[in-house]
Amino acid sequence: MSAAATPPVHVPVLLRQVLDALAPRPGGRYVDATANGGGHLRAVLDACAPDGRVLGIDRDPEILTALAGTCAAAIDAGRLQLATGSFAALSRLLAARQFAPVDGILFDLGLSSFHLDVSGRGFTYLRDEPLDMRFDPTDDASESAADILASRDADELTAIFRDYGEERFASRIARTIVARRREQAISTSGQLLAAIEQSLPPATRWRAARDAARIFQALRIAANDELEQVAEVLPQAVAALAPGGRLAVIAFHSLEDRMVKHFLRDQAAAGRLRLLQRKPIVADAEEIAANPRAASAKLRAAEKI
Predict the structure, then answer these.
(1) Span 121-224: which CATH code?
(2) Taking a C-beta distance cutoff of 8 angstroms, is the pair 136, 58 a contact?
(3) Assigned CATH class of 15-114+226-304
(4) 114/99 Cα distance (integer angstroms)
(5) Cα angle 280, 284, 285; round to 5
(6) Could you tell me the residue ranges of all domains in the chain?
(7) Exposed (0-12), middle (13-18) or buried (19+): which is 27, by Cβ within 10 Å?
(8) What pLDDT sits at residue 2?
(9) What are 16-55's pLDDT values in tens digits?
């Protein structure tokens, strides 16, 4: 299904807390480096009205096509620009648009509701779809999840499942995948789910969904080089901020959150940033009830000195 015809579904998590962290003001320049469905982006646009400007970046061209339609008025008014690409190219994207320095940058890491619910690219085990998992399916230089499953040996797959998914049956699942692909390529989410279920001890198969969630997460992270992208962009973000500018990062995965926490603390110790809080901000019970995907969200923020 095309996002151009069906706008991405996106419920922005920790929206009030993000606005508090970024403190958008009229005349400011802000970057939403993970535009997704535009929930945070539109709120920042409203908060920095009437003359503040926002640059929205996303790797997924379908998402930006939809946003170009729903945010046409802001684009026509010169208050919003959209850029297709990885946020790991932040410095280049800002320089090309003469958009730096900026007063605030937001990263909402991971995948959006659009990818799970609409994209049809195999991000979820709940539907049988082609096993792609790339945020940018037009990038022929990148490997899909199916490519990774077809080309890695058992040890390499075990490392992916263990390191990115923290899956305790990583080795068993990897060996099953290698054995099954000798008979037939694992090219759909349904085939991968079947391989995962077959790998588990009989006593634990009733909860195979938990293992499947971890394996699908690990493959998505590998297909999109997500951790490497975060490591590359954080120093660029600090460099792009004006003095007093704010950096806000929402992470859903423990590995990402740990990376962000250590980076911000190191930058604070070096005198480049001031932490806005010592502990991450999390969603309250009311938000989690309305949007269960907010349950694992952690927001960390800092201000450039």
Answers:
(1) 1.10.150.170
(2) no
(3) alpha beta
(4) 28
(5) 145
(6) 15-114+226-304, 121-224
(7) exposed
(8) 44
(9) 999 999 999 999 999 999 999 899 999 999 999 999 999 9
